[in-house]
Design goal:
This protein is α/β, with parallel strands linked by helices. The protein has twelve helices and six strands. A six-stranded mixed beta sheet has the order 3-2-1-4-6-5, sandwiched between helices. Strand 5 and strand 6 form a beta hairpin. Helix 7 crosses helix 8 and helix 10 packs across helix 11. The relative contact order is 0.12.
Length: 323
C-alpha cells in the first residue's frame, strides 16, 4: 500500500489554490529533480489545465540529481504543450536568472503595469519553493526549513510593477496511487516522518542505488563485492561499516537506514535520480495493467454473483411451481 500524507492544512491550501488559480496567469511548479513526476502534484496539473494556464516546471535540487537523467526530463517536459522546464538549484544565480524571462515568454499578453503578470509558485512540501522565492527577491520573505510543510499560508509579493508572485504551502494529494511515488517522496523528505517507516523507504532506495549507482554506493560504504548483497544486506553492511550496534551486539538497522536516507538527501552519494522518463513510463504502464486486471476480476466476480442469484431465483421459482 502506498504511503499517504494529507494533513488538514493541505486540504485548506488546495481550496485556496483553486481560488487563486482563477486570477493567476502562469503556474511555476517546483519539483524535485531527482523524481520530477513523483513530486509533481496531479491536483496542480488538474487545476491549471482546467483554467488553461501555462506552466514553468522548475526541477530544483538538480545538483543532487543525475545530470544525464535530468537532461532527459528537461527534453521530455519541454515537448509538452504550454510547458517549459528549467533545471536549477537555488545556489546557482545564473539559473535563477532564467526564471522570470521564461515566465514572460510563456504569458506575453501580461507585460505591463496595467496587466501585470500574475504567477503562483506551487509544489510538494520541502521542494524548495520558499527558498526559490527568497532567491528571486534577493531577500528573506518566506520561511525556510529542512522539514516538510514549513509554509502553511499563501504569500503575495510584488516583484515589480508588472510582476506579482504568490507563494503557496507545500501540497500533496489525498491519495497517492503509485506505491513507488510515496517511497520516492519519503526518500526525498517531502513527507512527514510520522507517515512512513524509514527502514522500508531505505530498502527501496538501496534497491535503486544497487541497480543504477553501484559504483557510488560501493565507494561510499566500502563495499568490496556488491553482487553479494541484496537490498536489506546493503543496509546491514552500512550498519557494520559504521559500527552501528544495538544492545546485545546486533546491527542497528534503523540507524543505518536513516544514514542511507540522509546521505542520499545530502548528495553524499553523488548525483542520484530515482526515476527517468523511461522508468516512469514502465511504472505507469504496469500500474495501468494491474488496474485493468483488477477491474476484469471485479467484473467477473460480479458476473458470477449475479449468475448465482439468478440460479437461486429460478430454483425458488421451480419449487413454488411444484407446490
Amino acid at each position: 500500500m502506498a504511503i499517504q500524507w494529507f494533513p488538514g492544512h493541505m486540504n485548506s491550501a488546495r481550496k485556496k489554490a483553486a481560488e487563486t488559480m482563477e486570477i493567476t496567469d502562469l503556474v511555476i511548479e517546483v519539483v524535485d529533480a531527482r523524481c520530477p513526476m513523483a513530486s509533481s502534484n496531479p491536483m496542480v496539473e488538474e487545476m491549471r489545465l482546467f483554467r488553461q494556464r501555462p506552466c514553468l516546471k522548475i526541477l530544483n535540487k538538480a545538483d543532487l540529481a543525475d545530470a544525464k537523467t535530468t537532461q532527459e526530463w528537461i527534453e521530455h517536459l519541454n515537448a509538452q504543450a504550454n510547458t517549459r522546464a528549467i533545471a536549477m538549484n537555488t545556489k546557482n544565480p545564473s539559473a535563477i536568472g532564467q526564471i522570470l524571462p521564461t515566465c514572460r515568454a510563456l504569458a506575453p499578453h501580461r507585460s505591463d503595469a496595467t496587466k501585470p503578470l500574475r504567477m503562483m509558485i506551487m509544489g510538494v512540501p520541502n521542494v524548495g519553493k520558499s527558498t526559490l522565492m527568497n532567491a528571486l527577491l534577493k531577500k528573506r520573505v518566506a520561511n525556510v526549513g529542512d522539514e516538510p510543510a514549513v509554509t502553511k499560508t499563501q504569500q503575495r509579493i510584488e516583484l515589480s510593477s508588472d510582476m506579482v508572485l504568490t507563494d503557496t504551502p507545500g501540497m500533496l494529494w489525498p491519495k497517492i496511487e503509485l506505491e513507488t511515488d510515496g517511497l520516492m517522496l519519503a526518500a526525498s523528505h517531502a513527507i512527514g516522518v510520522n507517515a512512513y517507516f524509514e527502514d522500508e523507504v531505505a530498502i527501496y532506495l538501496a534497491g535503486i542505488l544497487r541497480t543504477r549507482y553501484g559504483k557510488a554506493l560501493s565507494a561510499r560504504y566500502k563495499i568490496k563485492d556488491l553482487s553479494l548483497l541484496d537490498d536489506v544486506g546493503i543496509i546491514e553492511h552500512v550498519a557494520a561499516q559504521r559500527g552501528y550496534r544495538i544492545k546485545g551486539g546486533g546491527v542497528d538497522f534503523e540507524k543505518a537506514a536513516h544514514t542511507l536516507l540522509q546521505d542520499y538527501r545530502d548528495g553524499a552519494l553523488g548525483g542520484v535520480s530515482l526515476e527517468s522518463p523511461t522508468t516512469r513510463a514502465q511504472v505507469v504502464a504496469e500500474f495501468a495493467e494491474q488496474k485493468r486486471i483488477k477491474a476484469e476480476q471485479k467484473a467477473e466476480r460480479e458476473r458470477q454473483r449475479q449468475a448465482f442469484l439468478e440460479n437461486n431465483r429460478r430454483s425458488n421459482q421451480h419449487e413454488d411451481e411444484a407446490v
